[in-house]
Amino acid sequence: MEKDRIIDQIKEHKQLSHLNYKLKEDAQRFTDTLFYTLFDYATDLEKNLGILEGLFTELVDLACWETDKRCSKVWEDYVEGLPKILRTLNLDAAAIFKNDPAARSLEEVYLAYPGFYAIAIFRLSHELHIKGFPIVPRLMTEYAHQITGVDINPGAQIGEHFFMDHATGIVIGETAVIKDHVKLYQGVTLGALSVDKDMRDIKRHPTIENGVTIYANATILGGNTVIGENSTIGGNVWLTSSVPAYSLVTHRPDIHIKELKKR
């Protein structure tokens, strides 16, 4: 029968026995529940922590492919760290409110700012990443990427009081290091100079020291590139080498304006 032949051929080409898209859906549900648990005042905290533990157990079944399920032991440590993550996120929200004159209240920051949502999901996923929980941290930040347009790898290291204005289009690579009181504007890329599979676990993305501001669409590349503290990087700058502390780096394109003949 033709249908049986097609089914057999499809089965022949399905190669990944662990690939289950329910994992992606469950990771998104876990992310949503986690966000509400930490920030929504009307949410029943005790009840939601129980729901989260149940969702986490389902993620363990789908994502932990080792026979002894070692990553099932991560949950207690993770929950223990949630108050510390929340404290750091409150500092991020305060930094946004302090730096953005358009922000009328802290509630507006938590409810409406894509930069806050993106850093919140990053910090919640980063803790799972450093505990060695497989694939779920990546699914969490990709979920935030879909919603906000901000692409932060869960392996990046980001300090306190972090502010992303407008945020859309920001890319922060896996080995980037961002210290405290850093401000990024939309479209900033902290990326690698080149991509090669052999560079896994090698620092490929820049280090941004304390107090740096990087304006829209600047691109800073390379694992040895360090932006010295309290520097300002102008919009559209392309930078592949380090700059000392208190630098002002600007990009000056030639713009020609010509008067057209009147008809």
Q: How large a portion of the residues is in β-strands, by DSSP E? A: 5-15%
What's the SSE pattern?
A: HHHHHHHEEEEEEEEEEEEEE
**How much helicity do the residues have?**
40-55%
Chain-averaged pLDDT: 94
| Total E-strand runs | 14
- Give the termini distance in whole angstroms: 73 Å
Strand-pairing-aware structural class:
alpha/beta
Which characteristics define this entry?
263 residues; single chain; 14 strands; 5-stranded parallel β-sheet; alpha/beta; 7 helices
Can you put this structure into words, describing what you see?
With 263 residues, the chain is an alpha/beta fold. The chain is 43% helix and 12% strand. It has helices at residues 2-13, 22-39, 45-63, 74-99, 106-112, 114-130, 136-148, and strands at residues 151-152, 157-158, 163-165, 171-172, 177-178, 183-185, 189-191, 207-208, 213-214, 219-221, 226-227, 232-233, 238-239, 248-249. The strands form three sheets. The protein has a five-stranded parallel beta sheet with strand order 1-4-7-10-13. A five-stranded parallel beta sheet has the order 3-6-9-12-14. Strands 2-5-8-11 form a four-stranded parallel beta sheet, with no helix packed on it. α2 packs across α7, α4 (74-99) runs antiparallel to α6 (114-130) and α6 packs antiparallel against α7. The longest helix has 26 residues, at 74-99. The termini are far apart. The mean pLDDT is 94.
